[in-house]
Write a structure and sequence with these properties.
Two copies of one chain form a homodimer. Chain A is an alpha/beta fold and 340 residues long. Chain A has helices at residues 6-13, 17-25, 32-44, 51-58, 74-88, 103-115, 131-139, 163-176, 193-209, 225-236, 252-264, 298-314; strands at residues 64-68, 94-98, 120-123, 144-147, 157-161, 182-186, 218-220, 246-249, 274-276, 293-295, 322-325, 328-330. Chain A has three domains: 6-49, 434 Repressor (Amino-terminal Domain); 60-161 and 297-326, Rossmann fold; 163-296, 3-Layer(aba) Sandwich (Rossmann fold), CATH 3.40.50. Helices cover 44% and strands 14% of the residues of chain A. In chain A, strand 3, helix 7 and strand 4 form a beta-alpha-beta unit. The N and C termini of chain A lie far apart (80 Å). Chain A binds a DNA duplex (16 and 16 nucleotides) through residues 3, 5-7, 15-22, 25, 29-31, 34, 49-59.
Amino acid sequence: MSKLTIGDIARLADVSTATVSRALHSPHLLRPETLRRVLDTIDEHKYIYNALAGDLSKQKSSVLGIYVPTVESAKLSETVFALQETVQAHGYPVIVNNTNFNAELEKTQLRQARERSLSGLFLIGYMRENLPYIDEIIRGGIPCFFLWDTLPGTDYNYVGFDNQSAAYNMASHLLGLGHQLVAFVGAMQSQIDRVRKRLNGYLSALEQRGAPVRPELIREAPPTLENGYRVMESFLNMKPGSRPTAVFFASDMLALGAMAACRQRGLQVPEEISIAGFDNIEFAIYGQPALTTVYVPSREIGQLAGRFLMEAIQRGEPGPHQRCLETSLLIRESCAPPRR
Amino acid sequence: MSKLTIGDIARLADVSTATVSRALHSPHLLRPETLRRVLDTIDEHKYIYNALAGDLSKQKSSVLGIYVPTVESAKLSETVFALQETVQAHGYPVIVNNTNFNAELEKTQLRQARERSLSGLFLIGYMRENLPYIDEIIRGGIPCFFLWDTLPGTDYNYVGFDNQSAAYNMASHLLGLGHQLVAFVGAMQSQIDRVRKRLNGYLSALEQRGAPVRPELIREAPPTLENGYRVMESFLNMKPGSRPTAVFFASDMLALGAMAACRQRGLQVPEEISIAGFDNIEFAIYGQPALTTVYVPSREIGQLAGRFLMEAIQRGEPGPHQRCLETSLLIRESCAPPRR
DNA sequence: CTGAAAGCGCTTACAG
DNA sequence: CTGAAAGCGCTTACAG
């Protein structure tokens, strides 16, 4: 019942510990006969590899880390799971960290990555103030991938999409429909760069169309149904004339919550007010009406990032690995021209 | 830039490595003056603790593992995140494994837990055939907690609820409304014990009411909106008379997908058909109509399980830790008496 | 193709 | 309260 070590196996198979280690990790280096003998001994005695010892001598743990600001959004989970699926085929487990928009917490979690010498980090957003610390980690030799955003003109690894132009396109679509008062509700743009870029996309669409910016039509809330509901209520309480005729939510959760608020008030979407989202979660198409939104390739992001890291580790490809994926406007039924 | 070890710190602070180690983990053992000197040196030189070495010498990694069959269900994520929140306050990161209803994969992931000597495991469901292997892990000294289910009469740790009686109650509610043809759609009851218990609850409600069991009204599908949609379509294609007048879905995702199928066919819920769910995901209340479902205390499960493990580790409480939480029927608008 | 041996950076029982 | 030293179980450069 007490645990066997490679030393025990070595003795039992009449080889050295080095040979046992090779049987486990570089079988091609061994004579088939030797290999077989060692492997048989391992099986027979149900030897369990001690990864703690292995990690220490390699000075690197084959564990990965992913950092997510919140997981209320099912969409982020898709990236997490696609990533896990990709890397677990290579035997890499992944530690999932919820930073919860908390810079202090995020930093603690980032520090653990160094203490544990993780093989790679994936960041779906990060707190701006921690960037220097992230740089330090990268210099320390842990590859970091930024997800859900692009950082062109830098040496950072990233797999994401152009948040600004995606938001620009949606805002333009709304303005093109004839809306003058288009509101924007972001999922924490003050803290998350990629959401700030969406805000910028919205602003530049306004500018390009010559529409005025109205600060009272720009809001921010964590991406939950309930917050969408609340924000929408507050819009609906504005007096007609200053009340937005279209609202662009930078998250489907918010948008879907908002649709419920409209329903509650007996307001027809899109006849009386247009609602657009961002993400394309599975529920978007089940909305009533089906939600016009921005398609985000969340699974592809996870897969690609996982693959890039595996290549970086196994084939020693130095990078930087950078990829900007396509998003697209999903025009469905929740947006229409404003009433005259 | 090269990494410092406690040996370096010891030399710089003119103490032994044992003292540095104590400063880090058992500061109360040191004279305040010594402690201060060591801590200052650590700060000054930005020493980073090497958890790989620490884990090896303690022969135990302060990492936890959680095993989830699928994460399409937002509800399971709630448990995962509540758990993480609870344990991360104690400095324990958690590896999240998606077993994806795949016994082979689950076993590989379980083996990694042993290789890495994790400090604790949480299983939200597991493949039946892997139970002997889980037993082996427990005997090997890694505490395991079964979540989302109860295992009364055993020595296993669990934090869950009574799936059978919860399902029994919902099925009884439907039958009590006057439905004769109540269908049951499970999220993989053939593979997941807790879902099988829900099926049993449904069956015993039928029996208790003297309602016949109709095999064609019992279905199984992974818990996604799309599957709910499809299964419902197939029910709606049955000829009236044999078609169910109420459907009990063992997952809100399925139920909400089914509501969309009804809408698509122009069928009124609950006037023409009743639909019930299980989970109470946030979307349930935003359904049209609001979904009648079973409340599952997913966050409490995660919190409690995390707390139990921390107590087991830190205060050495041996357990078994067992807790059956309450569920409740959430009667909303999606169920009504059948049409005559 | 295989082995002897140093080394990875901590922890902790023991001694003082 | 503190230190010397053995030990955790691997990996790998080097030698043969």
